[in-house]
């Protein structure tokens, strides 16, 4: 394990702290907004900004909200939808056709929206038609991102997760990857405790599942071992209040979550979470994976389950309940169908004999357990 920087000055010199190579240029900056705007000017780019609207009340972001070419995304109301992508693509084509970079500033939701818009601008079909894997897509406009909430790793992954009319599924394509990511942990200061904890828990689950995976590449596992240690440390220290040192660590764990997901694969908790997400339009991804982990005591006896319970306690949060998001027994059949389709994730967890283990009854029982909590 490398030495973890304690100050922003140390952090600015820490790259690369990951092993898996990715094309995104990482810029660590104490003052994210002026750094981002300075880079755009220096490189002579014509940006279009996609900003999480919640940031408008925070003075650090004033110069971004003063920009004319922008769209404000309400990430609190929903994860990004395929329809949001289509309308933004239409708007940019009509009003700002010369925009050569799409700049996403916000959490995973806002970054994914900007990533999807960037690629869809140069591809003819609707976003829904590109949800999935292996589509032949052209490179779109350049994508730049600046996370204001850390944990998803979306700042470096080749995935833009979207909710579509039929399902929640990513556009999985190398051209959704950001070409520049400005990493500025002080920008996460205004995040609510609930989001800080749950998004970091998602980061913890990514790393935890990749370290347990039977199909992940060695570099990805090594990045996840580091990421897991950092995420665990941060969550166990408690994220009730913003602390600069923990914000730096969270930003590091998040990038490691992105790098490790390139050669790595998550497992059972994520497979179960997709069924839950598809049945609950307002359920945040991070809460969906937490609900899943809390029902997987038998699979994740060596850490994952017990630590999740402990982390929620340390951070003063109740265990979430699926019923609070409208999930009930009538959803079990469709949730099971979705989860059964996550073959690669079950294979990641169980190895080649996954089909004997992750059958219909096994998965139904997990959803019954989720609902009995
Ligand atoms: P988010 O973007 O959904 O934001 C959660 C909440 O935090 C929102 O209310 C948002 O407004 C608020 N917020 C963000 N930054 C803030 C700040 N600085 N101050 C105050 N409030 C702030 O949360 P997330 O957990 O970062 O992202 C979740 C999304 O990312 C989901 O849609 C999920 O599917 C996706 N995801 C993507 C990847 C990927 O690789 N692309 C990986 C995991 C998850
Ligand atoms: Zn996740």
Question: Overview of this structure, please?
Answer:
The protein is an alpha/beta fold. Helices cover 46% and strands 11% of the residues. The protein is built from 15 helices and nine strands. Strands 1-9-6-4-2-3 form a six-stranded parallel beta sheet, with helices on both faces. The protein has a three-stranded mixed beta sheet with strand order 5-8-7. α3 (62-65) links the parallel β2 (47-52) and β3. α6 runs antiparallel to α7 (218-237) and α7 (218-237) runs parallel beside α11. The chain is globular and about 55 Å long. The two termini are 37 Å apart. Bound molecules: nicotinamide-adenine-dinucleotide (NAD) and zinc ion. Nicotinamide-adenine-dinucleotide (NAD) is lined by residues 52, 54-55, 75-76, 79, 106-110, 112, 148-149, 151-154, 157, 159-161, 187-188, 190-191, 195, 199, 285-286. The site of zinc ion has 6 residues, from α6 and α10.
Features:
six-stranded parallel β-sheet, 46% helix, single chain, binds zinc ion, alpha/beta, 15 helices
Instruction: Return the string of H and E elements.
Output: HEHEHEHEHEEEEEHHHHHHHHHH
Strand order of the largest sheet: 1-9-6-4-2-3
* Shape summary: globular
Termini gap: 37 Å
Count of discrete alpha- or pi-helical segments spanning 4 or more residues: 15
Strand content bin: 5-15%
How would you characterize the largest beta sheet? Answer: 6 strands, parallel
Radius of gyration: 20 Å
User: Can you count the beta strands?
Assistant: 9
Mean pLDDT: 96
Structural class determined from secondary elements:
alpha/beta
The stretches of 5 or more residues where confidence is low (pLDDT under 50) are none
Bound small molecules, by name, code or SMILES, are: nicotinamide-adenine-dinucleotide, zinc ion
Tell me the helix content.
40-55%
């Amino acid at each position: 394990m490398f030495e973890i920087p304690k100050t922003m000055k140390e952090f600015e010199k820490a790259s690369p702290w990951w092993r898996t190579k990715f094309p995104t240029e990482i810029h660590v900056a104490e003052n994210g907004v002026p750094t981002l705007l300075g880079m755009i000017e220096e490189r002579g780019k014509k940006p279009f900004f996609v900003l999480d609207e919640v940031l408008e009340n925070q003075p650090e972001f004033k110069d971004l909200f003063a920009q004319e070419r922008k769209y404000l995304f309400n990430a609190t109301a929903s994860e990004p939808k395929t329809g949001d992508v289509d309308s933004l693509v239409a708007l940019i084509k009509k009003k700002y056709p010369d925009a050569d970079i799409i700049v996403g500033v916000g959490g995973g939701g806002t970054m994914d929206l900007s990533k999807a818009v960037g690629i869809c601008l140069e591809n003819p079909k609707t976003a829904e038609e590109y949800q999935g894997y292996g589509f032949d897509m052209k490179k779109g406009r350049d994508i730049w991102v600046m996370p204001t909430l850390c944990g998803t790793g979306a700042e470096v992954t080749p995935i833009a997760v979207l909710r579509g009319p039929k399902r929640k599924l990513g556009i999985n394509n190398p051209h959704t990857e950001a070409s520049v990511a400005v990493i500025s942990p002080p920008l996460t200061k205004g995040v609510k405790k609930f989001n800080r904890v749950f998004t970091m828990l998602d980061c913890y689950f990514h790393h935890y599942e990749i370290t347990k995976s039977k199909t992940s590449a060695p570099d990805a596992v090594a990045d996840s071992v580091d990421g897991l240690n950092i995420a665990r440390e941060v969550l166990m220290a408690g994220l009730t209040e913003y602390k600069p040192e923990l914000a730096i660590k969270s930003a590091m764990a998040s990038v490691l979550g992105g790098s490790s997901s390139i050669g790595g694969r998550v497992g059972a908790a994520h497979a179960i979470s997709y069924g839950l997400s598809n049945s609950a339009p307002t359920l945040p991804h991070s809460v969906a994976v937490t609900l899943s982990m809390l029902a997987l005591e038998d699979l994740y006896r060596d850490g994952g389950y017990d630590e999740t319970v402990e982390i929620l306690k340390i951070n003063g949060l109740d265990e979430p309940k699926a019923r609070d998001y409208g999930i009930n027994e009538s959803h079990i059949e469709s949730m099971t169908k979705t989860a059964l389709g996550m073959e690669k994730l079950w294979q990641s967890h169980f190895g080649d004999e996954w089909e004997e283990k992750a059958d219909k009854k096994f998965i139904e029982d997990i959803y019954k357990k989720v609902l009995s909590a």
